[in-house]
Amino acid sequence: MKTLLRWESALFVLLVLVVVGGSAATGGSFLTDRGAFNVGSDLAVMALIALPLTLVIVAAEIDLSVASVLGLSSALIGVLWNDGWPLEAILPFVIVVGAVCGAVNGFLVTKLGLPSLAVTIGSLALYRGLAFVVLGDKAVADFPDSYTQFGTTPVPGTWIPYPIVLFVVLAVVFGLLLHATTFGRAVFAIGANEEAARFSGIRVKRTKFILFVLTGAVAALAGIVYTLRFASARADNGTGLELEVVTAVLLGGVSIFGGRGTIGGVVLATLVLGGLTDALILDDVATEVVTLVTGILLLASVFAPAVTHRPTRGTP
Amino acid sequence: MIAIVAAALLLAGCGGTTKNNSGGDSGAGPTSGAADPNAPTAKDLKITFLPKQVNNPYFTVAQGGAEKAAAALGEQLKATGPSSADASSQVTYINTAAQQGQNALLLAANDSNAVAPALKAARKQGMKVVTFDSDAAPDARDVFINQASSQEIAAGQVKLISDAIGGAGEIAILSATANATNQNAWIAIMKQELAKPAYAKITLDEIAYGNDDDQTSFQKTQGLLQAHPDLKGIISPTTVGVAAAARYLDSSSYKGKVALTGLGTPNQMRKFLQDGTVGSIALWDPAQLGALATYAAVALASGQITGKQGEKFKAGELGEYTVGANGEVVLGPPLTFTKDNVDKYNF
């Protein structure tokens, strides 16, 4: 636990460095209202998915299909909108579809006992394929301004993008769920030692199943945010995003072996990643270098806890 | 359950709307006064060059042309961009250019609509937007530099294959994906061309789709030649397809017997042009495309044009250009590459 606290402090220091360094290097254009709005809008989609994925990884599982669920959600929005459905019906519908996608993952992992890494690599391809089946490589874009403003304008009188409001609400919800409920304690127990958790009466399968359903639903919600922000429903939306999300979760101090991690750390990590990327781009640092810096951060985040706190899972 | 709460939150902010009663987009971007063709050319303008993705050889050549034109006019041009060409990856870079107070943006859009809100916001604060290679929504940019008209591209391809097969025989088309907008527009025009008396002895057997994937295109070429033993020629109006088809022909017994043309880059096709597998291919010069986009951006930022139809601007050694309908400027007819001239080009 002490290691974790130190990691979060390190993230906080890193965040301060990013803000101070970013402002200095970019001559004051970094944290203007406009700049903060841009950073917030850029990181919101990734940050939303990172929340439920944190719980999945704490439970020592993984879900790599999240970006494909986002794409499927976006493609469905496009198709149903073309069919003349009202958005009030489309949006809850795609969230239900996302939950069903999560339930399929959850079923395969819990009922059939398959490893989530293999299951979700498969469903990554399956859901992305479905997205292309429903919408092809078309783009649907004729959404009304009153909806796309959700992703392109700040809350009136502030610099805050609407998706960040949504993110803050969900961060509180998932933070409470993980850190202040019996469900959350069960998630930690499963991640630390699944056998022990089962013997102490925790319903391991049901807990994991719920986590996958939640992740699918939030990934679909992120698909809605993505579609409205870019005013473009496409099957290839969010391709490759799963790796960014996993990066944010691991950088947030969540152990890939399960059992350790906090929502607070992950929120800090998304801010660090979002702020850093924006500051580097604003400072005209080459795209390749931005990717490289992210990679170094990720390695550091996996390396630091592994050195100070070796995983004990599997060797009780 | 959480997701449903979130959906409710999301819905709460919006009024009731379906596709059919959606309010139309309020339309035209800012039109900043009248053009003054005699206005002096502004110096030291800050211009951002934003391709579909960085490290793409085609756009690297376009960037070279843009840099040369900017240097000739005394402007500052810098290139930036995402490492992947997916729909939304450019938005961050557009926002950044606006935040940096750049005077103009040269953009090859990955998704015409995904970039529109960011472009509109940038234009509101005075940034001029020139799209090139692939357009953004017309009300989100000032001018679009089109590489060549669809008519010129498609008619040119039919002419090249007709010349290669002596004006008679069976041909096939190897396209990209089945619903690629530009490919389908070209194919429609090719069919009109083939209906003309001059091409009466040419029959179009099949249109195959290689999905702009190298391996699929290679296999589709193989399939076309199996299915149509009398095939005389293939048109592949996509750089991926034409290169794969050339590799297949080169390695098969059809080499020299079946003609191939298409839209290809000199570097990809040099070997096949030189060894006779392919007689000729066509493409525009991306360096000129980048240069013309730069000249248009400078003319816009200097107030010499506003993007209205009929306005004229000077583009250095490229000559004078006129803005067409919908703010479109056409670079000119595509270049044809043969073994005689291919060594003059490096892209």
Largest sheet of chain A: 2 strands, antiparallel
- Strand fraction band of chain B? 15-25%
- What is the share of helical residues of chain B? 25-40%
Mean pLDDT of chain B: 89
Shape of chain A: globular
Tally of domains of chain B? 2
- Extended strand count of chain A: 2
Gross morphology of chain B is: elongated
Low-confidence spans of chain A: pLDDT under 50, at least 5 residues? none
Key descriptive features of the protein:
heterodimer, A: 316 residues, mainly alpha, 13 helices, 2 strands, 1% strand, B: 347 residues, alpha/beta, Rossmann fold, 2 domains, six-stranded parallel beta sheet, four-stranded parallel beta sheet, 10 helices, 37% helix, SBP_2_dom (chain B), Bact_Solute-Bind_Prot2 (chain B), Peripla_BP_I (chain B), Rhamnose ABC transporter substrate-binding protein (chain B)
Q: How would you characterize the overall build of this protein?
A:
The complex is a heterodimer of chains A (316) and B (347). Chain A has 316 residues and is mainly alpha-helical. In chain A, 74% of the residues lie in helices and 1% in strands. Chain A has 13 helices and 2 strands; from the N terminus they run H-H-H-H-H-E-H-H-H-H-H-E-H-H-H. Chain A has a two-stranded antiparallel ribbon. Chain B is an alpha/beta fold and 347 residues long. Chain B has 2 domains: 46-147 and 285-331, Rossmann fold; 150-283, 3-Layer(aba) Sandwich (Rossmann fold). Chain B contains 10 helices and 14 strands. Chain B has a 6-stranded parallel β-sheet, with helices on both faces. A 4-stranded parallel β-sheet of chain B has the order 7-6-8-9. Chain B has a two-stranded antiparallel sheet with strand order 10-14. The radius of gyration of chain B is 23 Å and the shape is elongated. Chain B starts with a helix and ends in a 10-residue tail after the last strand. Chains A and B meet through helix 2, helix 4, helix 6, helix 7 and helix 10 of A and helix 1, helix 3 and helix 4 of B. Chain A: The chain crosses the membrane at residues 35-57, 87-109, 116-135, 164-188, 209-228, 248-273, 285-307. Chain A: InterPro entries: ABC_transp_permease. Chain A: Keywords: Cell inner membrane, Cell membrane, Membrane, Transmembrane, Transmembrane helix, Transport. Chain A: This is Autoinducer 2 import system permease protein LsrD. Chain A: It is a multi-pass membrane protein. Chain B: Residues 47-304 form the Periplasmic binding protein domain.
